User: Which sequence fits this backbone?
């Protein structure tokens, strides 16, 4: 009976990890496609990103049901409980990442002069870092890799630096080209959503670190970005 219970719990944890990996994969694709739609001003691709969001929401709901069921039936403790709680929390954060990608996609149709605003060239590079953070933090979760989680946390500073640079560029651009103020505002919204994706990836990385080590990754534990 004990062996059966342990096996059942292991299967449920594997299911949780599989669901979150699927969520992460969809969120990563959503970020990539949202930025592609923005750069190419592809309304059809943007609509596909928006249509993808309910699938991510449904997966989060499935994670919630399975996690609650596992806690109720298995009464996990210590490391096992951290695994289940981490899955429950991470699914919520990944769902929010999907929302940010959807929000970016919704902005595509609102650009008045696509391709005419110079700071747009900085967005794909910022998005690539944010997308990589999502991919790697989910890999860290699947492998319980605390070191990779810390590396993802370190990368958030690069996303923040991109946001600051884009903000400064947009302010200058608006002053020199008042007619592009509307597009600049849309682009600032996009950059802000990418910055939030970086923050949420960092939050997941901190959860992964805790699940793997049982300790919190405090600021003093994080490696210096200049190391």
Assistant:
């Amino acid at each position: 009976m004990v062996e059966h219970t342990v096996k059942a719990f292991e299967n449920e944890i594997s299911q949780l990890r599989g669901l979150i990996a699927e969520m992460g994969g969809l969120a990563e694709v959503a970020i990539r496609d949202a930025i592609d739609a923005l750069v190419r001003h592809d309304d059809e691709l943007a609509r596909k990103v928006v249509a993808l969001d309910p699938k991510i929401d449904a997966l989060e709901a499935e994670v919630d049901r399975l996690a609650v069921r596992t806690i109720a039936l298995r009464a996990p403790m210590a490391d096992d409980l951290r695994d289940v709680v981490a899955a429950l929390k991470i699914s919520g954060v990944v769902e929010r990442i999907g929302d940010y990608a959807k929000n970016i996609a919704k902005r595509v149709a609102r650009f008045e002069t696509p391709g005419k605003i110079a700071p747009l060239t900085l967005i794909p590079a910022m998005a690539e870092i944010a997308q990589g953070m999502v991919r790697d933090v989910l890999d860290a979760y699947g492998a319980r890799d605390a070191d990779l989680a810390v590396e993802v946390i370190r990368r958030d500073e690069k996303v923040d630096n991109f946001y600051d640079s884009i903000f400064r560029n947009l302010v200058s651009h608006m002053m020199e080209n008042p007619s592009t103020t509307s597009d600049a505002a849309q682009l600032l919204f996009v950059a802000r959503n990418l910055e939030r994706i970086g923050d949420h990836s960092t939050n997941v990385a901190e959860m992964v670190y805790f699940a793997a080590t049982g300790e919190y990754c405090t600021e003093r534990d994080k490696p210096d970005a200049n190391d």
Remarks:
- The chain is about 80% helix and 0% strand.
- Residues 80 and 98 are 27 Å apart (CA to CA).
